[in-house]
């Protein structure tokens, strides 16, 4: 079946939305594609988080981490002893699960892009763990790129490899994603929360891998149970429309029984399991809900 993107392209053009590349896969085949110019490699922003989540699942499957692993188990040197801070409010007591579903307990999450650019402290793990929590972890969702960076650091401490190096033989190479660039911290830790540079066709392969519950060309790259777990709602969240459907573990829940990896400025990897379909989009556009609205109006009915 060939799917038409004419309506989608017409709508984004009419609304002045700067969508750059679109891929639709269904039943494991390319159903439609469109590029404004060429499908070049671009920064995927927070879609990077969903790749880091795969590394966490692999480390758990290998017995090197668990959902209950706490930061102080791998970073005891950074635990701040302060009699005025309750133990439950110390970042060292945070568990991997708290970080994965972004319930770490910060009102103002550390290590935002702006803060990373200006922070004098080069050891970002030390910095993160020096900041007391504002509330008990596990209770409330607050979107935090800092949480994902700490996941990356934790994986590196547990496996002895950066997340990029760890994922290269386990995920990138099997998916045919070669010579990956991924930004690092000043001390060489894979950024994890952002900074991954791939193209949209490569992103669509990641979506197909997710749709196939971690299976690729007959090999189980990541346990299916992990894919199932991280792509279902783990915590309620507040937001508008497709940002209010709940959050999994480094994945967003969508309307229309879908889930997605999601990056700033309109990077999307949408998985519609009931339609056996994947929609991958790269953009340079702040109006992200408007892009999704057109996906639901123009692409979804054809699936």
Automatic annotation (TrEMBL):
A GO molecular-function annotation: hydrolase activity
Keywords recorded for this protein, A-Z: Hydrolase
Record's protein name: Serine hydrolase domain-containing protein
Positions of the Beta-lactamase-related domain: 21-288
SUPFAM superfamilies for the chain: beta-lactamase/transpeptidase-like
Highest taxon, organism lineage: Bacteria
Organism expressing this protein natively: Paenibacillus motobuensis
Keyword Hydrolase: yes
């Amino acid at each position: 079946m060939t799917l038409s993107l004419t309506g989608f392209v017409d709508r984004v053009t009419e609304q002045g939305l700067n969508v750059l590349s679109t891929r639709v896969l269904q039943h494991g085949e390319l159903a439609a594609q469109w590029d404004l110019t060429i499908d070049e490699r671009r920064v995927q922003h927070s879609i990077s988080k969903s790749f880091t989540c795969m590394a966490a699942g692999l480390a758990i499957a290998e017995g090197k981490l668990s959902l209950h692993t706490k930061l102080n188990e791998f970073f005891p040197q950074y635990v701040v002893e302060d009699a005025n801070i309750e133990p439950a409010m110390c970042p060292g007591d945070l568990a991997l699960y708290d970080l994965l579903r972004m319930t770490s307990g910060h009102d103002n999450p550390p290590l935002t892009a702006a803060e990373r650019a200006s922070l004098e402290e080069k050891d970002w793990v030390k910095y993160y763990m020096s900041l007391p929590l504002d509330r008990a972890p596990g209770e409330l969702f607050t979107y935090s790129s800092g949480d994902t960076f700490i996941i990356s650091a934790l994986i590196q401490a547990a496996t002895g490899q950066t997340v990029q190096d760890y994922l290269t033989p386990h995920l990138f190479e099997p998916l045919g994603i070669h010579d990956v660039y991924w930004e690092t911290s000043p001390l060489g830790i894979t950024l994890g929360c952002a900074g991954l540079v791939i193209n949209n066709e490569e992103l669509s392969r990641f979506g197909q891998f997710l749709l196939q519950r971690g299976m690729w060309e007959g090999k189980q790259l990541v346990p299916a149970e992990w894919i199932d777990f991280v792509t279902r709602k783990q915590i309620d969240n507040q937001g508008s429309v497709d940002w209010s459907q709940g959050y999994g573990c480094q994945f967003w829940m969508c309307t229309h029984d879908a889930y997605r990896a999601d990056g700033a400025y309109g990077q999307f990897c949408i998985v519609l399991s009931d339609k056996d379909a994947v929609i991958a989009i790269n953009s340079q556009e702040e109006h992200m809900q408007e892009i999704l609205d057109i996906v639901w109006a123009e692409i979804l009915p054809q699936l």
